[in-house]
Amino acid sequence: MKRRLEKQKILDQELAEESDFEEHFVEDVETTEERLEVKSPESEISSVNIFVKQPSEDDIQSETSEDEDGKLPEKSFQEVAVPHRERVQDKFKPSILSAVNFDPEQSALKLQKSMQNSNVDEDAIIFVLASHTHSQRLKIAEEYKVLQREVLQTDFKSNLSGEFRNLCVSLVQDPVVRDATYIRKIVQGEFRIEDLVGILAWQEANQLEEIKKIYHAMFASDLELDLENAAGRRHVPVVRVLCSEGRDEDDQGALHHWATVEHNANWLMEAIQEEDSEALKLRLNNVLSLRSWNLLPDILDLFERKNGKDLSYHMKRMIGSKIGGAFTSLFFVLDEPSAFYAEEIYAAVDGLGTKDDKLQQIFVRRSEVDLLSIDSVFRKMFGRRLNKVVKEETSGSYRKLLLALLGT
User: Fold this and answer.
1) Tally of CA atoms within 13 A in the half-sphere of 161 that contains its CB
2) Residue burial 150-188, b: 16+ Cβ < 10 Å; e: rest
3) What letter would DSSP give residue 118?
4) Tens of pLDDT along 127-172?
5) Would you say the pTM of this structure is higher than 0.70?
6) Alpha helix (H) ranges present in 275-384?
7) How many percent of the chain have pLDDT more than 90?
8) Residue 43 half-sphere exposure, CB side, CA atoms within 13 Å?
9) pLDDT bracket for residue 256 (50, 70, 90)
């Protein structure tokens, strides 16, 4: 946290005299059809919104393809030969692992017995939910429907109450439905770009497509347009990056990975060295909207190592401090995901009242990814362990279930 604050202070001082170009950056916002138009970095366009849905890949494709000998260049990939996932300081330590000797029928029976009478055995429910992964919980829910002839979510809603009920439902909910529902709350509430980044960053293309479909089916509205309207001009480019449908997904091996990383980093650096803000906008569009989530952290890391300053600095300098700053949260979650979510948990519990929706969303989403890492980073950043925060901010069975998800 201290490192980020010091870094931000330096950037703000360096950029204090710079003019903001965000008005130029988002003027003449295109219609959906116009944003689908293919544009190349060399296009002579005076004013263009760079974060279109499907920008041209022609230029960058030529740089990442084979050389004259028909082989991918190899000269400097080894200097970044450790993938981002293995390199990040916080690592990835989940708190929930798959149950050994998994028996969905027995678990379903436990849940059935726990809600047989008015005196609900909430401890039994906590044990079943917190000792299985999400995929195992879905199988338990299927068995429960066979045994009880009822939907598990429905019985949770009927027999439980408060935030404990909400958390139990979330743990057995289809993740696409859960995400679509949470995004609707973001749209209708006080919009924070960090909330959206926490949901959509790292989403696979097929997951994003399903979320959009479910959102439209549930709310009769277009997810991306709703988000753009809620986000405001400053954050529209970030929304479009997060909602990009053309992102690479294929894993083509280590050599191709590092070749693509090298060429994308160099491609961005060329526009910066030439002080060409229009080229930088269009190249950012290609890189941020099309490169896979696994490639982006390595591209950003190599760019900073070669250039001496991170991409955010140059975006603020050449495009505008407000637009560049809007991407801070996205770059943060790409660089140090556990630290990003640690800050989001702090935001959920800081001040009067607890933002339970946010707290639950993070615990449910990250328990099988890096919740233990988040706990460790949270302690380093804020001087407290998450179990202490949970005990201070929650109570009853709701507290017990959050602690169980944390593994304590």
Assistant:
1) 5
2) eebbebbeebbeebbbbbbbbbbbeebbbbbbbbbebbe
3) S
4) 999 999 999 999 999 999 999 999 999 999 999 999 999 999 999 9
5) yes
6) 277-290, 296-307, 311-318, 321-326, 328-335, 337-349, 356-366, 371-382
7) 68
8) 18
9) confident
Tell me the residue type at 325: G
CA 76 remoteness from chain centre:
30
Say if residue 319 is exposed, middle or buried (CB neighbours under 10 Å; 0-12, 13-18, 19+): buried
Instruction: Please name the residue that has the structure tokens 């726990």.
Output: 114
What is each CA distance from 19 to 16, 155, 186, 235, 310, in whole angstroms? 8, 57, 31, 18, 19
Q: Report the SS3 class of residue 44.
A: coil
Q: How far apart are CA 109 and CA 112, in angstroms?
A: 5
Q: Which two tokens stand for residue 76?
A: 């400097």
Dihedral of CA 19/243/96/98: which sign? negative
Average pLDDT, the chain: 83
Distance CA 50, CA 14 (A): 25
Q: Is 149 helix (H, G, I), strand (E, B) or coil?
A: coil
Q: Which two tokens stand for residue 53?
A: 């849905």
Count the neighbouring beta carbons within 10 Å of the beta carbon of residue 333: 23
Q: Which residue has the tokens 């328990």?
A: 367
**Contacts of the segment 304-312: beta carbons below 8 A, 24+ positions apart:** 305/79, 305/80, 306/265, 306/266, 306/269, 307/269, 307/272, 311/268, 312/11
Which distant-in-sequence residues (6+ apart) come within 8 Å of 354 by Cβ?
348, 393, 394
Q: Which residues contact 66 (CB under 8 A, 6 or more apart)?
A: 72
Q: Are 41 and 50 in contact (CB under 8 A)?
A: no
What does the alpha-carbon distance between residue 111 and residue 141 come to, in Å, rounded to a whole number? Answer: 9
Q: What is the tens place of the pLDDT at every residue in 72-127?
A: 344 343 444 455 555 565 678 999 999 999 999 999 999 999 999 889 999 999 99
- For residue 90, give both structure tokens: 């916080």
